[in-house]
Amino acid sequence: MIRVICQTIKTSIIKLSLRMSSLSNQSNRLNSFGTNEEDPIYEATVHSIKNLSPTIKQFYLAINDPLKTFYFQSGMFLDFYLSPSITSIITGFSICNSPLNYSKTHLIELAIRETDYAPTKYMFNDCQVNEKVFVKPGGQFFYQPPTTTTTNNSILLICAGIGANPIVSILRHLLDIHQSNNSPRNFHRIEFFYTAATREDLVFHHSIDLSCQQMIKDNVLRTNYFVTREINDDIKINNRRINATDLQQSIQWLEKPVTAYLCGPSSFIDDIENILKKLDVKKILYEKWW
To answer: Does the keyword NAD feature in the UniProt annotation (predicted)?
Structure first.
C-alpha cells in the first residue's frame, strides 16, 4: 500500500511525497517516513476496541504524554512502531478525531480496516485492550486554514472507503471551529462526499450527520453518501458513484473559491482530481492509497 500526499494548484503539482507501506519487499518501511526523526516516539495504551463493521474496527489510544508535547493537525496519521517480534515495518494509521477532541478526551481515535498486510493484520486480529504500542504523529496532508482573515474559501471534502479517516478528522475540526465562541469561522461553506463499497462500510455516516446537525441547518454544510457495490433502501444514500454533475452542483453551491481535500484509492483520486480541474478548482490536496 502506497500513500501519496499531494497538493495541486493551477493544475501543477507543487508538493509530492510517498508513504511506503506495501507487501512488496521494496516498499516495506524500516524507517519513519513523513515524520520528523527528532520528534519523540510516544508510548500509548489501547484504551478500547470496537467493531464498526465486519471489516473495520475503531481503536482509542491513550497517549503517555506527561510533558504535554504530543501534537497533531487534523488529517495527520500516527506511525506505529510495533514489536520486532510482530513486524519490523513502520506503518501509519490516519487519525479520525480532531485536535480539540483529543485535548478534551486525551484519546486518539483510529479506524482500521482488516487486510493481510502484517501491521494491519496484527492490529485488527490480535491487538488487545491495555496493550502498549509506540507511535509518532506526522504527515503532510492536513487542514490548511486561510493565510489571511479576509480569505474565507469554501471547503470540499471527498473520501472513499477507509480514506474517510483523515477527511473526517478535518470535518470534525471544522465543526469545532463552527461551534467555537473564541475564534471566527475561517471558511464559507463545506460539502462532504463519502463513498464506500457497501452501506456498512460508511462507518461514520450516522455520527457525522448527528454531530453536524446544526451546521446542516445553518446551510453551512451539506453531506452526500454513496455505495457502489450494493443497492440499499436508504433514500439518503446514493446507489452509484460520485460523478461530474455532483461535483459541478457542489462547486456552484459552495460559491466561494474552493479548497478540495481528497482521500482514497489512487484511481478514485485521479478521476475526482480530473473532474475538479475541469471545474477550475485551483487548490486540490489529496492523500492516495493503493
So the answer is: yes
**DSSP alpha helix (H) spans, 117-219:** 118-125, 164-179, 205-211, 213-217
DSSP at 37: T
Q: Is 227 helix (H, G, I), strand (E, B) or coil?
A: strand
Q: Cell numbers 478528522 label which residue?
A: 169
Claim: this prediction has a pTM higher than 0.85: yes
Q: Which among 207, 190, 179, 181 has a CA at the least distance from the CA of 261?
A: 190
Residue with cell 485488527: 124
The residue type found at 83 is S
pLDDT digits (tens, 9 = 90+) for 103-151: 999 999 999 999 999 999 999 999 999 999 999 999 999 999 887 665 6
Q: Is residue 79 a contact partner of residue 138, using CB atoms and an 8 Å limit? A: yes
Distance CA 183, CA 216 (A): 20
Domains contained in the chain, CATH given: 2-18+143-289 (3.40.50.80), 20-138 (2.40.30.10)
Strands 237-238 and 221-227: parallel
Cell numbers linked to 135: 507511535
